[in-house]
Design brief:
heterodimer, A: 113 residues, mainly beta, seven-stranded mixed β-sheet, 11 strands, globular, B: 112 residues
Amino acid sequence: DARVTQTPRHKVTEMGQEVTMRCQPILGHNTVFWYRQTMMQGLELLAYFRNRAPLDDSGMPKDRFSAEMPDATLATLKIQPSEPRDSAVYFCASGLSVGYEQYFGPGTRLTVT
Amino acid sequence: GQQLNQSPQSMFIQEGEDVSMNCTSSSIFNTWLWYKQEPGEGPVLLIALYKAGELTSNGRLTAQFGITRKDSFLNISASIPSDVGIYFCAGRETDSWGKLQFGAGTQVVVTP
């Protein structure tokens, strides 16, 4: 049963701390997307990759957020330093290629106090 | 944030009733996707549409890609309690390099 996995599922941290979220895309998918979901803004695209290369990260606050794909089975999203306004659910999604469906992981619920 | 207009925002229906929701865009799309999200989980893909006029079913769910390419609808027939959740539409423009735009969601509540 192929699915996107994300770790951790929940993270509570103090303001100023570094947060790292990880995603394992579905095997064989070459596009990976990072989204943030909040009640106010809904689902927002932060960044996405194709064949491990960043295609667009215009949705990310560049000063504190960074996204990478060290290899085809791992995507990471880092926040340093974290702020209370970063509290949200962060989703990773993967797709066979840019024009295909996107499959979402279960999300990481981040709370920054 | 959302760029699609999804309605209604919420629906409270009785078990057995049919549900209909729709999404409209100001742009022409080449893809419409419908997702369902339950509390604490990620959106789950229900139906994918790639051609104008396309009508696709998945069990009791039916979705259509509007012929203007600027809208889509999702119907749920004979609703059951497990249909409860938030349904999102998502669409993609031709030159968007894979980027999806999302609707704000339709919350469906089914009472026995």
